[in-house]
């Protein structure tokens, strides 16, 4: 911590203690270098953006309730002429578009000005195309917000910032001021992206495929703004990753070796390495894309001799590893949830840690599986083979987590329910990856709803559900208050049901031939689409209940004890909420993070936590 | 009973695909998919079943601690690393073999050219003809789509390219798709199963036929979801007859123009009833003065239309974007005349013109 915050260690308040006065408190937060405040600030902004992205998703699902149809009706007017009128049905959202429309006189002839040119006036035109365009903007908004502003920063920047230093026994991250800078870069990047949305939004999809992205809305700056937003957000990612790598290397508490670190820290560490190595590639790619749009340099645009597939290679060289930036922290949280709430040592600690690093390494050589229908046959075969490698460490983790539950003392509370839900959902997400990695079946499933369902099972079922589980797990520590577990559990069950209703149906839509990013569809898909849409409402209800449970906890939740679940990692040794400097004294590591079989958790009474016979000997043998 | 249901691959084919794949190579992909489905069900039940069993059996009970068990077990961990490795290698090999069947076309295919653009597919047959029929299917609703006639049980190879952005050619019933690029050719081959006497997707036709949807699977803008066509499989004799016969059969130029309007993709952007769309309407276009955003206003005549079709970027109509691809080489002179005649028929300022003038057939199929 910086020197201006010198306190008497014994009279320190919690990090949440206001500075006195509204203005001072705002200043205290806006210029803080405290990793905990920054974690809370990230969490708040991520949750707000999650709400916006979620609303866009609900809009997408609502639009798909009914297919879009143009009905032509013929009527005969007074002059005996047949007049055709077109009516568009099934379009719920149609923002329309302002276009110059010729002014007509009473006879229906164009009005001419003095020079004989037709007169135009700007009018809001709504037709099939503008409705489709509204839909395309909606799903782009959903994708871009969820990927760049929610999932990527969710666990590392929010929970990682808050807990990584505490779990290592450190006072803060290695570079606290850099951490504050990362937060401002994140806000700045988000403002760019949101400015683009407020200016009307973009319809490129979050993947910005060329040459569509270099030509659409050519006379507007919105697309450039969105791309620059993603570019800027990348810097926030890189700096956060760098900060975490140095923190893990240099700030571990005395006695904490690499294999005494909690698995959450391992996962964040593996994630940080990917972030630092892969994000510059997307930075360069997005910069090239901006230059292509503004200066027409001819690298991606085929009309200028560029190659649009080159963009896909550049894009996925980053965006595939980033899939693991999204999921690895979720795995890290899962390891914590399953061990703490079953009071059980993780099975195969080293295997789980190595699997994280293995996944991080393999993630760099499988990008081509996003392009099976775009690249050459040989490349497709090679990337298919490499992609199967990911299945192995992922499978190992799965087996280890389930083996961890064996002979545990498993409590079903909200965080644990989320943990088990991640296992359930990720099993489906992982297994449905098999037909996508297999060339013969992917040729059918590629870019269909099967893919949509698959990545929602992994990205949302894996990362977002784990993130929410992590929030409920660490909420008492972060804010010092308990929540109503029964209420939160009800919400969690609804989220779980809603999720499956929404996305499981989409596997069948995909195999039956529904392409993704369609504003409309042929009749036979309607039933499945409607089931999926109903699922999205259940999902919404679940999340609203969760929000209510957390808000209620902030208002009048009972005070949280330092260690409500009986965890053994360092964050449970400090107060809830932690003091400004995390610990009164620098902690010294005397046991491993998962030694539930030989150590009574801090702040717990041995009466409430009887150890099996031989525990003392085990402890002695272990250290 | 349940066992019989599970073993009934026809049932599961219907659940996942509605019906059996129609190309010769689809069967390999379907068998592969159903095999992976049962393997996944087995793994999922095994994993999550064990999880639920543990959660119930070892639920927290007051006063009972977590029991001590091994923190790791090398034999077990090596086993569950090695076995999945072997399994995924086998899956890869099986997938590769079925993929090879999908991509390697036999010799002696019927070669067709395909051109994709926002938002239409355009197939050209060896005799220079395009689609001669279109339909407004109820289940699509939004627009007219062309019908492409393909002979049954014949290897067909499409050489594909795009005029604007990336599209993807997907016939779900064949279980295969291939992206279509603006800067290179890609190919797509298939051979359908022979038609059965009971195949009557279109009951109005006197011969057995099967119809398949063709979708665009790569996002390409506003009307991405309307970029469809119908692939109609017909008996070989019928295809031979269709290829050797001029499609107009003595139709007037106006009638031919109205067919080209639908099959060449004009319908995707231009209305003929005065309503607005991506491009300006053709209703009351010919003979009217229009304004351009980059040129002086002009009264639409034959040459203005010619320029707009062959060099669409030269003059941009006020209120519209420069979005139309060129049709140079894809609409010949005769077809252009037919389109102009059709536009004239839609305008009340077309002046003198003979609406019954015939096409004459030359330049089209068999000509």
Describe the strand arrangement of the main beta sheet of chain B, using strand numbers.
3-4-10-9-6-7
Q: How large is the count of helical segments of chain A? A: 17
Q: What distance lies between the first and last C-alpha atoms of chain A, to the nearest angstrom?
A: 32 Å
Structural class of chain A: mainly alpha
Instruction: List the total number of helices of chain B.
Output: 8
Looking at the overall shape, the CATH architecture of the largest domain in chain A is Up-down Bundle
Strand content of chain B: 15-25%
- Class of the largest domain in chain B in CATH? Mainly Beta
Residues in helices of chain A, as a percent range: 55-70%
Summarize the structure.
Chain A has 623 residues and is mainly α. Chain A has helices at 22-30, 35-63, 128-168, 176-198, 212-215, 222-250, 263-295, 308-340, 349-362, 377-405, 414-431, 433-437, 439-445, 449-479, 485-511, 526-556, 615-622, and strands at 69-76, 82-89, 97-102, 120-125. In chain B, the strands form three sheets. In chain B, strands 3-4-10-9-6-7 form a six-stranded mixed sheet. A four-stranded mixed sheet of chain B has the order 2-1-5-8, with no helix packed on it.
Could you walk me through the main structural features you see in this protein, from its secondary elements to its overall organization?
The complex is a heterodimer of chains A (623) and B (367). Chain A has 623 residues and is mostly helical. Chain A has two domains: 38-64 and 128-556, Cytochrome c oxidase-like, subunit I domain (Cytochrome C Oxidase, Chain A, Up-down Bundle), CATH 1.20.210; 89-126, no CATH class. Chain A contains 17 helices and four strands. In chain A, strand 1 and strand 2 form a beta hairpin. The radius of gyration of chain A is 27 Å and the shape is elongated. The model of chain A is unreliable at 1-10 (pLDDT under 50). In chain B, the strands form three sheets. Chain B has a six-stranded mixed sheet with strand order 3-4-10-9-6-7. A four-stranded mixed sheet of chain B has the order 2-1-5-8, with no helix packed on it. Chain B has a two-stranded antiparallel sheet with strand order 11-12. In chain B, a hairpin with a 4-residue loop joins strand 6 and strand 7. Chain B has helices at residues 2-7, 9-17, 26-57, 74-103, 236-244, 253-263, 302-310, 333-345, and strands spanning 110-117, 120-124, 133-135, 145-151, 156-162, 167-171, 176-180, 186-190, 210-216, 229-234, 289-290, 298-299. In chain B, helix 3 packs antiparallel against helix 4 and helix 6 (253-263) crosses helix 8 (333-345). Chain B is an alpha+beta fold and 367 residues long.
């Amino acid at each position: 911590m910086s020197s201006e915050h010198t306190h008497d260690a014994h009279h320190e308040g919690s990090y949440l203690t206001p500075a006195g006065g509204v203005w001072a408190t705002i200043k205290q937060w806006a210029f803080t270098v405290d990793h905990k405040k920054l974690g809370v600030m990230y969490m708040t902004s991520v949750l707000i953006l999650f709400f916006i992205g979620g609303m866009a998703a609900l809009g997408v699902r609502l639009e798909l309730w009914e297919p879009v149809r143009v009905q032509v009706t013929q009527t005969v007017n007074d002059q005996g002429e047949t007049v055709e009128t077109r009516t568009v049905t099934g379009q719920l959202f149609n923002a329309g578009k302002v276009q110059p429309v010729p002014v007509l006189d009473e006879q229906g002839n164009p009005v001419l000005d003095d020079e004989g040119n037709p007169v135009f006036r700007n009018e809001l035109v709504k037709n099939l195309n503008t409705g489709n365009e509204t839909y395309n903007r909606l799903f782009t908004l959903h994708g871009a917000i969820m990927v760049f502003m929610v999932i990527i920063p969710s666990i590392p920047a929010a929970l990682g910032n808050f807990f990584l230093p505490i779990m290592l026994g450190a006072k803060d991250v290695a570079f606290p001021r850099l951490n504050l800078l990362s937060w401002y870069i994140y806000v700045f990047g988000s403002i760019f992206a949101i400015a683009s949305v407020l200016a009307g939004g973009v319809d490129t999809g979050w993947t910005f495929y060329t040459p569509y992205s270099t030509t659409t809305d050519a006379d507007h700056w919105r697309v450039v703004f969105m791309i620059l937003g993603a570019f800027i957000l990348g810097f926030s990612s890189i700096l956060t990753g760098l900060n975490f790598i140095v923190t893990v290397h240099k700030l571990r508490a005395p006695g904490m070796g690499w294999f005494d670190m909690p698995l959450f820290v391992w996962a964040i560490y593996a994630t940080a390495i990917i972030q630092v190595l892969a994000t510059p590639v997307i930075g360069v790619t997005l910069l090239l894309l901006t230059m292509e749009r503004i200066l027409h340099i001819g690298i991606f645009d085929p009309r200028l001799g560029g190659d649009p597939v080159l963009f896909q290679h550049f894009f996925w060289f980053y965006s595939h590893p980033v899939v693991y930036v999204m999921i690895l922290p979720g795995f890290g949280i899962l390891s914590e949830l399953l061990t703490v709430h079953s009071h059980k040592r993780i099975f195969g600690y080293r295997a789980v840690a190595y699997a994280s690093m293995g996944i991080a390494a393999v993630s760099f050589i499988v990008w081509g599986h996003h392009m099976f229908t775009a690249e050459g046959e040989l490349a497709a075969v090679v990337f298919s083979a490499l992609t199967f490698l990911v299945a192995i460490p992922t499978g190992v983790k799965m087996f280890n987590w389930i083996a961890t539950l064996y002979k545990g003392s498993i409590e079903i509370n909200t965080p644990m329910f989320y943990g088990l839900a991640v296992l359930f959902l990720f099993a489906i997400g992982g297994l449905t990856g098999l037909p996508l990695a297999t060339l013969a079946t992917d040729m059918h499933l590629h870019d269909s709803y099967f893919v949509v369902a698959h990545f929602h099972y992994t990205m949302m079922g894996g990362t977002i559900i784990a993130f929410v589980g992590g929030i409920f797990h660490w909420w008492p520590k972060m804010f010092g208050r308990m929540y109503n577990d029964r209420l939160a559990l009800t919400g969690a069950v609804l989220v779980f049901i809603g999720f499956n209703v929404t996305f499981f149906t989409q596997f069948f839509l995909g195999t039956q031939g529904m392409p993704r990013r369609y504003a409309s569809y042929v009749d036979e898909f309607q039933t499945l689409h409607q089931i999926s849409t109903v699922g999205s409402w259940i999902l919404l209800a679940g999340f609203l209940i969760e929000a209510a449970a957390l808000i209620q906890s902030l208002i009048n939740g009972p005070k949280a004890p330092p260690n409500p679940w009986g965890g053994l990692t360092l964050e449970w040794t400090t107060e809830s909420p932690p003091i400004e400097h995390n610990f009164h004294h620098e902690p010294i590591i005397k046991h491993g993070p998962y030694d539930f079989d030989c150590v009574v958790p801090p702040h717990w009474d041995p009466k409430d936590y009887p150890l099996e016979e031989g525990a003392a000997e085990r402890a002695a043998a272990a250290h | 009973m349940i066992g019989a249901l599970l073993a009934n691959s026809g049932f599961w084919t219907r659940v996942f695909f509605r019906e059996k794949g129609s190309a010769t190579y689809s069967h390999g992909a379907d068998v592969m998919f159903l095999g992976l489905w049962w393997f996944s069900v087995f793994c999922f039940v095994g994993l999550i079943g064990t999880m639920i069993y543990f959660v119930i059996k070892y639920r927290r009970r007051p006063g009972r601690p977590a029991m001590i068990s091994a923190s790791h077990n090398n034999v077990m961990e090596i086993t569950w690393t090695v076995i999945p490795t072997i399994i995924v290698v086998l899956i890869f090999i099986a997938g590769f073999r079925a993929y090879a069947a999908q991509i390697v076309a036999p010799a002696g295919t019927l070669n067709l050219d395909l051109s994709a653009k926002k938002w239409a597919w355009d197939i050209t047959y060896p005799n220079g003809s395009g689609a001669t029929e279109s339909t407004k299917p109820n289940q699509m609703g939004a627009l007219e789509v062309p019908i492409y006639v393909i002979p049954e049980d014949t290897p067909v190879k499409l050489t594909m390219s795009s005029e604007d952005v990336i599209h993807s050619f997907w016939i779900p019933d064949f279980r295969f798709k291939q992206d279509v690029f603006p800067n290179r050719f890609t190919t797509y081959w298939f051979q359908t199963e022979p038609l059965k006497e009971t195949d009557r997707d279109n009951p109005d036709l006197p011969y057995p036929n099967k119809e398949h949807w063709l979708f665009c699977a790569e996002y390409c803008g506003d009307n991405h979801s309307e970029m469809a066509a119908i692939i109609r499989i017909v008996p070989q004799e019928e295809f031979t007859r269709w290829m050797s016969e001029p499609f107009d059969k003595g139709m007037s130029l106006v009638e031919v123009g109205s067919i080209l309007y639908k099959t060449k993709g004009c319908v995707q952007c231009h209305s003929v009833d005065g309503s607005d769309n991506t491009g300006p309407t053709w209703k009351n276009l010919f003979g009217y003065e229009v304004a351009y955003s980059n040129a002086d206003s002009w009264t639409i005549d034959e040459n203005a239309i010619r320029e707009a079709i062959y060099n669409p970027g030269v003059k941009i109509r006020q209120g519209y974007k420069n979005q139309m691809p060129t049709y140079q080489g894809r609409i010949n002179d005769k077809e252009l005349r037919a389109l102009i005649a059709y536009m004239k028929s839609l305008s009340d300022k077309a002046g003198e013109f003979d609406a019954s003038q015939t096409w004459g057939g030359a330049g089209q199929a068999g000509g």
